[in-house]
Amino acid sequence: MRATRLDRRVKKEATSLLREARAALLHKPDLKGKAGELGPVSKDMERALADGDLVRVRRHLPILDSLVDELVKRPTKSGMGERIESLVAAVMLALLLRAFVVEAFKIPSSSMYPTLEIGDHIFVNKFIYGLRIPWTSTKFLELRGPKRGEVIVFMMPCDPDRDYIKRVVATAGDTVEVRCNVVHVNGVAVPAQLVEGECGYEDNASGEWRHMQCSRYRETVGTETYDTYQSALLPGQPNEPESRTDFPRPGEPPVSCASEASGPMPNQATGSVVETKQDAVGCDLRLHYVVPEGHVFVMGDNRANSNDSRFWGSVPHDNIKGKALFIWLSVRDGIFDFAGMRWNRIGDFVD
């Protein structure tokens, strides 16, 4: 009984393989490889089935099965085709990662010294603040908003085609005031301690490297501790209240892109300025800026040399691309400047 069932199964399998082989020979005349063997083996199998010779059927069955599997069931690809397919898949994966997960960014200016130097190349986490539809400012699946003290990359509100990198100083609803180079958030001075010793850095704003003097301070915001550069006159000679680094400036309207040559931006809200003391003198607090909803107030760590929210207003959440992660390359004058490679900075996290 068992032998009879086995014979029927062998005949059924042989008949099925023959059907696939005939279809392949009829409809796929361009089969390559061992296609020349498929015809003779199929004919031998047909004769064995017609003669009822199950010994020959069993002998030809594994051969025919191997040929059908190789030539019919398995898609035929050239080596070049497989390489092209692998390359396309790799490019698509890289584009998806760049669009939604991580992106490389190069530091072009000295506005974030000493945290980031000109020529630092960093990776940016694009997922943490929500996924952005490529080439738009539309975001979805936002995990959380940016926090005070974090370094972010964003589309500059007055020129969305340009990417900026700054530190978040205040979030929606917070008040900001800068007097005599001291940042106050919600009326409280950000803790800052002078770092003793020489302070200087190399700037390339004019196309030529030149040495700049500074004062170095260590600030703490929440769990974030970082250094900032201030004017070389500090400490002991604070700027006057009407200096360009103080904010807001008396008698001026709230800063925004509307005051820039680019005109108002549709997604940037204008914050408000509130007077707190009319007879203020020296470094007294007198005016504060209220960060609008859905925005953050950002400043460069190089406080005396940064184009930031003090001059064009707050950054809409929709403009934020991501949070700075770490430095993967740092070089003074381009990637081929091996002598200017800053090996000690590679791998540093951006705090």
Could you explain the architecture of this structure?
The structure is a single chain. The chain is of the alpha+beta class. It folds into two domains: 2-73; 100-345, Umud Fragment, subunit A (Ribbon). It is built from five helices and 19 strands. It has helices spanning 2-27, 35-51, 54-73, 79-100, 309-312; strands spanning 102-106, 120-125, 131-132, 139-140, 151-155, 163-171, 175-179, 182-185, 188-189, 192-194, 200-203, 210-213, 215-221, 224-230, 272-275, 287-290, 295-299, 315-316, 320-330. It has a seven-stranded antiparallel β-sheet with strand order 1-2-19-5-6-17-18. A hairpin with a 2-residue loop joins strand 13 and strand 14 (224-230). Helix 2 (35-51) packs antiparallel against helix 3. The model is unreliable at 236-242 (pLDDT under 50).
